[in-house]
Structure formats: structure tokens, C-alpha cells
Structure prediction request, 275 residues.
Amino acid sequence: MRQTLADNVIWITGASSGIGRALAVEAARRGATLILSGRNETALHETAALCAEHRLSGAPRLHADAILPFDLAAPNVRRQAAQKALGIFGRIDILVLNAGVSQRARFAETSPKVFDLIMETNFGSAVDLTRAVLPQMLERRSGMIVCISSVAGLMGAPLRTAYSASKHALMGFFGSLRAELYGSDVQVSMVYPGFVHTMISENALSGDGARHGELDPLQRAGQKPTETAHIVWNKLEAGALDIRVAFDFKARLGVFLARHFPKLFVRSISRHGGL
Ligand SMILES: NC(=O)c1ccc[n+]([C@@H]2O[C@H](COP(=O)([O-])OP(=O)(O)OC[C@H]3O[C@@H](n4cnc5c(N)ncnc54)[C@H](OP(=O)(O)O)[C@@H]3O)[C@@H](O)[C@H]2O)c1
Prediction:
């Protein structure tokens, strides 16, 4: 049970945008040292500048934040990047598996390549980075792995077969790992955002891999990422294992109906065209 983020080394994937950027800035404000990852190096530098701007003045720190750009979808690249990340400050106290890509295409119209790309980016990468980082946490008997899932990790939704599958896979993987790690002092926490105002729908992939390019109404009306980050870190610092955030009435109703009234759920979600 960790009291504070101060002096922790935190590696955040998907730190170039949206929730990941907001988590980085809020962690910097609370005194953490960061390793920031994503593909867009320029955007990662912007995140680092925001972290520096918001960091509590006078907070003693041994190191400047580090930037580690790479493509999570490529297995060899991400495994090498994980070794690099471990070497930067000699340890990782908290791993935040936040990067993700969504989907806006029916299963029949999603090419196998795009389906696999979404699974690799959202799920395969989380397994590989955890495999790399976990041993040093176990050795030090201290650490936290935070996985950013989704409301689509708790229920299915049209146009998101790969996305929802990848997020459900994360729950199975980390739920099992959490049970294996019981008593080890390594905390595994899952975060299930409902709707947050980010680029997730614009960056979502169509069936042929093209960018969807539209801000969905639910994201437009969603919570500000800064608010999401504040809530998430407060709950993580308090030791929460499962965190639902930006979980409005629609998200709560959807998850409830999917679990208890599947026929009503499927009729209602297909009538409303999905999430
Ligand atoms: N916004 C919501 O309403 C919502 C709801 C539920 C769950 N989530 C989850 O929240 C997480 C963050 O998403 P967001 O909403 O902040 O969306 P976003 O603004 O689109 O951010 C996605 C992040 O993932 C990174 N990323 C994507 N593909 C990558 C790849 N191949 N290699 C490395 N990095 C990659 C992006 O970095 P680069 O482009 O620089 O590579 C970006 O920083 C995701 O896991 C998403 O599924 C979001």
C-alpha cells in the first residue's frame, strides 16, 4: 500500500496524449520521476515540458524525466525498449500500461492485420512489458503495475471486436497475475475509464487500418483527462485495485445490463449504434 508517488520512478506508455499525458503531469506534480513513452517524440517532449512546469518547486529529484519513444505494436522493438527503460534509472517502481488504440469497424470488415495490430498494441505489449519489469519489482518486494482498460473491457460493443477483446484479455491476464502475486508486495491495479475527452476515437482504426478521424459524441462530452488523472492517482495511492473512472450512467447501465440482462443489453446497444 503506497502512500505517495514522491520519489517513485514511473514508466508511462501512451504518455504523448490524452489520459497518459495527464497521468504523467499529475504524477510529476506529486514528485515522481518519469519515463515517458509513445511513438510521437515531439509530443513526448511536450509532455515532459508540461511535467517540468507542473512539478512542485523544491521537490528534491535526482534525475530529469526521460523520453523513450518506440512502437509498442512491434514485439522485438518493445522488448528492447523495456530493457532500456529498466536501465535508465536502475529501477521502475510503477509501470503504467496506458497506451491503446481503438477500433471503428465491424468484425467482417476488419482485416486480420488490423485485428492483430490492435491486440498486439493493447494486450501483447502489456504482457511483454510486465514480463520485463516484474522480476526487479519482486526482487525489491515493492512495485505497482497499473493497467488502463476500458468500459469495453467489461462489456462487448459493436464496431469494437478487437478492442473489446484486447481489453477483456487484459482483465483475465492481470486478474490472474494479481492472484499469483498475493503477498509479494507488488500491487496490480486495473483502471476502467468510461468516457474521457481524448483523441481515442479520432485515432481509432477502421477495418483497413485508416484512422477513423472523428471525435465521438461520448468522448466529446467525456471527463477532462486532468480530472481523470487526479482521481486515478488518488485511488492508486490509497491502494485501490479496481478503479472505475469517468463512468457515467450510460457506462454503468451498459455493464449492468450486459451482465444480468444480455438480451435487453444487445437490443439496446445495437439500437443506439454502440457506445
Ligand atoms: N478516452 C476514453 O474515453 C477512454 C475510455 C476507455 C479506455 N480508454 C483507454 O485509455 C488509454 C489512453 O487512451 P486515450 O483516451 O488517452 O487516447 P489517445 O489520446 O488516443 O492516446 C493513446 C496513446 O497511446 C499511444 N499509442 C497508440 N498506439 C501506440 C503504439 N503502437 N506504440 C506506442 N504507443 C502507442 C499513443 O501514442 P503515439 O500516438 O505517440 O504512439 C497515445 O499516447 C487507452 O488504453 C484507451 O483504450 C480511453
Residues 14, 16-20, 38-40, 43, 71-73, 98-102, 121, 148, 150-151, 193, 195-196, 198-200, 203, 219, 222 surround NAP (CB under 6 Å). Residues 9-248 form a domain with the Rossmann fold fold (CATH 3.40.50.720). The two ends are 35 Å apart (CA to CA).
